[in-house]
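Anyone able to model this chain together with 1-deoxynojirimycin?
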Amino acid sequence: MPEWLNHAIFYEIYPQSFYDTNGDGIGDFEGIIQKLDYIKGLGCNALWLNPCFDSPFKDAGYDVRDFKKAAPRYGTNEDLVRLFTEAHKKDMRVILDLVAGHTSEEHPWFLESCKTEPNEFSNRFIWTGHCFERAEGLGFIGGEAPRDGTYIINFFKCQPALNYGFYQPRKPWQLPLDHPDCVATREALKDIMRFWLDLGCDGFRVDMAESLAKYDDDKKSGTSSIWRNIRAMLDKEYPEAMLVAEWSNPELSLPAGFHADFLLNHIVGGGYYSLFRRYNNSPGKAVIEEDRSFFKKDGGGDIRLFLDDYLPRYEKTKNSGFISLITGNHDTIRTRFNLTPEELKLAYGMIFTLPGVPFLYYGDEIGMRYLDLPTKEGGYFRTGARTPMQWRAGKNLGFSSAPEEALYLPVDSAPNAPTVESEEKNPASLYHTVKEILKFRQTHEELDGRPNLEILYAEKEKLPFVYKRGSLILAVNPESQRVSAPIKVSGGSPLYSIGQGRLENGTCTLEGQSFVIFGT
Ligand code: NOJ
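re: yes, here you go
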């Protein structure tokens, strides 16, 4: 396990929308370089960039046409390397997005694979036996290629699935995992990883990490064996490199070789979801059904909905890697959609003080809103969470000097849209709270990623929620009323507070809408 991960606090950047320095209306690598001090000042020490490789952008870059070439709209490979170098000078890390399960339909491997004449890439993708044959249980496309077969897709139509083999093959065209052509796919993925690691990147967030082997079993034994093989390579050749999975199943992903796995807040019914929202995100629109987010003032939220999901996973995996909690990401509706900045302060207080490696989505630190926008680059409902970062008052809120109509996406036009500038000026802002909490985390080793969590009070539909990490006791009360709970700790004094609280004579009392860290 790379030591740096114990202290890592990630900032996720959707490069299209972060900072445009050449006036073309879209963010670029140079923009990220210029904002490294901002990110570091906020308290984050690592970056995750959404895919920034050559792509037709039918799924915002998750459809990669050339894994080894930076998308020209962001800059060149040299610019990206400069970003690694500048980040490292500031003791920051940069991980890239590894789209392991599929490519763009325009990737040269796929174009070769479409040909009737057998070639090196014929089996790089999964083709059925003939043009009318369907692959049971898998998405497929027919009628698009000269080759007589249909091909399997991983997500959208533009994303043909790479062929890592079938764990339980049923037909001759379903190759086993150890077929030389499937092994070649795995080795090609390693080659891409080596390419960027040699250029200085610090690891990867792996897209749809669970999707590699088809017809896998419930334990994902096939996919896990592929990742263990890749992790062995990393341990040997790049022991400092990190792998974080988009899998949402740390019990499987961590033993499979990932250092961390996200618990995602878009998984309806998942415990994490209960922290932020109850909404129906399909089809197309975010509709709040019954808003009982735990952090909602007077929402009547229940911490057990989260803990009953999180704790067993945490207990099972705490010695093998990290669970990554997120404020949001490029696939989720922004938490500001249904939570106020005051409610978000408490949410971030908790997210950033639980064990694991946390991720902050750009703009969540200032409470950027979710905008209702038409789809862009395959974003659909996600588009509204991908709008330009709001830096300051004035043209395009400081994101770009391009004419408004040339922007990648419109900026928030609300007169009171928060900006970094306005939040910096206001000592009571969400931004300052984020900074304070992250600083507190960074200066108290007991709050780093390593496991030391004890639950002191977490009763169904009751408040406060109280937990302990080392000698620190942390308590949160999202509701507007004062609450108290018996705690098996005689006393402590507040070291950091949003709102107010006391810990005396075995009772923890929190005023309405408070988050307090007590030293004992
Ligand atoms: C998950 C990514 O986060 C999402 O944005 C993308 O559309 C799909 N995987 C397909 O790659």
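The CA atoms of residues 129 and 172 lie 8 Å apart.
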